[in-house]
Specification:
With 115 residues, the protein is of the alpha+beta class. It has a single domain, classed as HIT family, subunit A (2-Layer Sandwich). 27% of the residues lie in helices and 21% in strands. The protein has three helices and five strands. A five-stranded antiparallel β-sheet has the order 1-2-3-5-4. It is globular, with a radius of gyration of 14 Å. The structure holds 2'-deoxyguanosine-5'-monophosphate (DGP).
């Protein structure tokens, strides 16, 4: 059996983390290395999918639930607007292979790259 991911360990209270939202299939924590005033990670409770490509193919409703939670967090913490980032693969910056969305809000204009 493989070890639980760092995110599952936070959800289970084995290591500290700030839980921002929790529902039956999805939860959100604050990123340990925030890049904006709101920088949350929205994560499915299952570890079955390693990235958003697998998730979109395997359970599009779960992906929709993640995006709904991202929007709720943006409404609560950042005036409703947000950037959503999925890193897919190590060369694209992914370091935790339990699918998660980065939700960034209240981004400083100077930090917005040109897209
Ligand atoms: P990625 O590089 O896309 O796989 O994103 C992984 C994110 O997880 C990264 O932005 C930092 C965050 N992270 C890693 N370890 C921890 C931790 O122990 N606690 C919290 N809150 N976030 C973590």
């Amino acid at each position: 059996m493989t070890e639980p991911s760092i995110f599952t360990r936070i959800l289970n209270g084995e290591i500290p983390g700030e839980l921002l939202a929790d529902d039956d299939r999805v939860f959100a924590i604050r990123d340990i290395n925030p890049q904006a005033p709101l920088h949350a990670l929205v994560i499915p409770k299952t570890e079955r999918y390693r990235d958003v490509t697998e998730l979109a193919q395997g359970d599009p409703e779960l992906l929709a639930a993640m995006i709904a939670m991202a929007k709720r967090l943006a409404d609560e913490h950042a005036g409703g607007e947000y950037r959503l980032i999925f890193n897919n693969g190590a060369s694209a910056g992914q370091s935790v292979f339990h699918v998660h969305a980065h939700v960034l809000g209240d981004i400083e204009e100077s930090k917005l790259v040109g897209f």
